[in-house]
Each structure stands twice: as structure tokens, then as C-alpha cells.
Amino acid sequence: MSHSRARRIEPAPAAQGARVPGREWRVIGQLLPYLWEYRGRVALALVFLVAAKLANVGVPLLMKEIVDSLDPTKALLAVPAALLAAYGLLRFSSTMFAEVRDVLFVRVTQRAIRRVALGVFRHLHSLSMRFHLDRQTGGMTRDIERGTRGISTLLSFLIFSIVPVILEFALVAAVLLAKFDWRFAAVTFSAVAVYITFTFLVSEWRIEIRRQANDLDSKANTRAIDSLLNYETVKYFGNEPFEARRYDENLQKYEAAAVKNEASLGLLNVGQSLIIACALTALMFLAAEGVATRVFTLGDLVLVNALLIQLYIPLNFLGMVYREIKQSLADMERMFTLLGENLEVADQPGAPELPPGPATVEFRDVSFRYEPAREILHGVRFTIPAGRRVAVVGQSGSGKSTLARLLFRFYDATGGAILVNGVDIRDVTQKSQRAAIGIVPQDTVLFNDTILYNVRYGRHEASDEEVVAAARAAHIHDFVMSLPAQYETMVGERGLKLSGGEKQRVAIARAILKNPRILIFDEATSALDSKSEKAIQAELERISQGRTTLVIAHRLSTVMDADEILVLDKGRIVERGAHRSLLEAGGLYAQMWALQQQEEQNAAQASRRVAA
Fold it and tell me: Which domains does the chain have, with CATH numbers?
């Protein structure tokens, strides 16, 4: 089976050009599938929403009847107790229905947040290493945080503010048209139209200010996290003031954007209040004129006042709601943009799992480039028979570690194919492919958890006894038992509480526990001293027995017993063979061996001089 497929890497949506105005509204369509599961709850919540608004509009109507019944000109002898009781019941019902609606809808909101956040998290793990090498973790996590918070804001305001205001406006308009003349409805409609237009125009301007503030906030957060993750480097060079100054530069820019944002908010609030005040004044003037001419009753005046205050209070709130919805959409847009990142490495539809059993690995004319103008591998061809051990050596930058990344399918080869038992790894699932491989990397990064957790990460279902056995095999058990908390010892951020050699041994234990068919040792003993290296090297050789093993090494002394040694230079295999035959050939391998032997002799002599 021969393959020469190379996927073209599409640019991420965020980088495809300038932002299209109004594009953020499209995230509502992306959110709807997450709400469909609870469509029954949503419908029931809307029923209670309508009931609450009917009760709300009923209150001013009942108040009119109460005021009119208390009018001395009607000479009623009794207080309208039934009307007063009904008034109290309507007031209570309005609040009760609204609270029941909120209780019903909270699960919808929280489940949507949970599912979206989980979807983004899973998608980020499915993206290629290229994306994760280019990302800025601090800014990305802030985008996800704001996006999930935006879902709650959007659903709450959209369902419980926009819809109720529209419904209440329709009910108030119906009452005004039914009980008063056309002028009341005309003033109300005109004021609402002016109010909405003004709010829309100013909010559209403000949303750009908010987006700039978000960008600056993310950059400041990225700068802070990057600096804290590199705490030791900062300390090594005494660059605390420099880091603080760079962080403050980002904060200054965010401060300016935040001040501009707040000033624009003040302008919006003043304009909205002016429109509402003018409308209320005009309507109260018309109502008062009607009462003076006895066209309307005193109750009608109370009704108009109560209806309009009841309408304009949420309408005033609607301005803030619109702003928050737009801001939430902008925040969610950035989060959903992460979901829109293309999968550079993806399983084919219906791809089978990698067949079980011993694994023969073949690199068949593999070429690869990280960037179009920078080719790393050029037609690399070799085979690792099942259960055999092949080593790859070469200078830094020759492409050794790229072989491991391609075998793990962090990237797909841009030319040629990688096969396991004759099957192109692009034709099987990534999960089954990676489950068959165990790796001890050169740069071991641990989770900020216990030693037990980090070793067991190789196989979550492993028992404590199996974890201890793996730790013994990696020669780290005695060290762990010497610690006060033993296996419950926290290793710190990225494992910084452990030395390089200790971290490497944890990685070896983790790989042993996984019990894979294919093993990759990528400079696995680079962080160990000579004595520890020999002990670990013997253990690595033991655990690699019967497994297909790829050893990537810089120290040639660690690969002398390999079945075959490949010498990689500038992405090409320039020599191959056993250790002795390569030395006899007198090529690049022999030169590297002589140089390393000389370096070791010089180091030994220097050590003896210090001891003397």
C-alpha cells in the first residue's frame, strides 16, 4: 500500500481576514444544538414567562379599577376588598412565575455551558501539535472563560429579557389602543423606535471598544502566565523589573481601553434616559389633559403612568441587555473560533483500529516540512522489524525527534507513508495508533499532581502494586519512599519540584506501566548522570525486549547494542548499519564517536584534577 497524501493546512477562521460586522450573531445558531436536549424545559419556562408578564400587565389595569372605585364622586360605601386582594395576588403571581421560570431554566443554561466547554476542551486536544506550538495559553484560557460565561449571560438575557420586553410591549400597546386614543400609541411607538435605534447604533460602536479591551486583556494575561511559567529563567537573569514593566505596558493599554469603554457607557445611558424622559412627559401631559376635560378618569391617569413606567423600566434595562448580549456574542465568537480550528490530523470516516499483535514499523520514503520553505525530512526509508531495536543518531536539528512525532501522528507526513504491519497509520484511528506506542521524551513535563498520579497516567486502571512495580523498574521507588509524603508527594507546576533525572525516571515508569507494543526513547537518559544512565540504560534494554523499539539518541554510547543504527544528517539517512561496521566505515558516525570519546576523556581528566 503506497500513499502520497498530503493535507493542505487551511488557515484558522480567526486569521482569514478582517472581522465581518455582525458575524458574532452566528454563534446563536452554533449554540442551539446544545439547547435542544432540554427543549421541553425551555418551552415550560416560556409558559411561565408569559404568565408572569400577563400578571405584570394586569396589575396596572387592576390598579385603575381600585382608584376609580375609591373615587368620591361614585359614593361607594365600602372599600373594594376583593380588588385589593386580587391586586396582591397578581403582584405575588408575577414574582412567583418569574422565579419558577428561572428554576426551570437554570439546568438548561448550566448544561449548555458544560457541553460547550467540554466540546472546546476535547477539540483542543484533537488539534495538531502545530496549533499548540503556536498558541498562547494565557490568552486562550481567558477566551474560553469569557466564552462560557457569555453563554450564561446570553441565554439569561435573550430568553428572560428580550422576549419578555417584546411581549410586554405588545400587551401595553394593545391596552393603550383599546382604552385611549391613537396619540398614546403613536408617542409610545415613536419613543421605542428612537430608543432602539439609538441603543443599536451606540452599542455597535461600543462593542468594538469592548473587543479591543478583550484583546488587550488576553494579551496582558498571556504575558503574566508566560512570565510565571518561566519563573526560574526570570530569576536567573534578574529580570523581574523588566517583566513587570512589560506586563504594565499591557495593563496600561487595557486601562485606556477600559476608560474609553466606561465613557461610552455614560453617553449611552444619558441618551437613553433623555428619550424615556421626553416620552413619559408627553404621555403624562396627554393623560392629564384628558382628566382635566373629563374624557379620562383619575384611574386612567394612574393606568397610563403605571403602564409606561412598567414598560420603560425594562426598556431602559433593555439597553444594558443589548450591550451585554453583544458583548457575550463577541466573547462566545472567540471561543467558537477555537472550535472552528481545522483538524490538520483527522481520522478517516470509519477508520478501523490498529490490529493487535507484534508491530513492524516502516518509514517509506517519508518527507516532512513544518513550513513550506523548510523541509525537515527528505525521503527517509527504514524498517524496524517486530521486536527489534533501531537507533537514530545525528546532530541537533537533523530531524531525529520529528520521526517520533510523525510515528505518534502529531503531524501527517507531507510525502511518503508510515506503516505499521503494512497498514498506513493514516488509515487507522489515532487512538489505537497511540495506544500501541509508549514514549520516554527528552523533555519530561509532569502534571501538577502527585507522583502516584503522574506514574499512573500511563494506565489509569493500574493498581497501586503495578504502579510500584513500574517505579521499581525505573529505579525511582527508593527515592519516592524516602520522601515524607512518598507517592502522594506533589511534583509542582510542570514537575519543577523534581530534578531532571527524577522527572525522567517518572516518565520511564509511566512508559513501563503503559506496556506498549512500540517503544520510543527520545534522548531518554539525557538528564541522568553517568552512573544513573548505566542503570537506567540496562533497564530500558530489559523492558524493550520483545518490543519494537525506536531509540533517538545523541550519546552514541547508549545505542551501541542496537540491531541497526541510522545516521541522520539534514533530514537524510547518510549511513546505516551496526556500531562496529559504522566505525570501520570511517564516515560521519565514526567522526561523532571519536569526538564524543574525546569529550568524555577531557571531562574525566578535569574531574581528576578537581579531586586532586
Answer: 25-339 (1.20.1560.10), 355-436+548-612 (3.40.50.300), 438-515 (3.40.50.300)
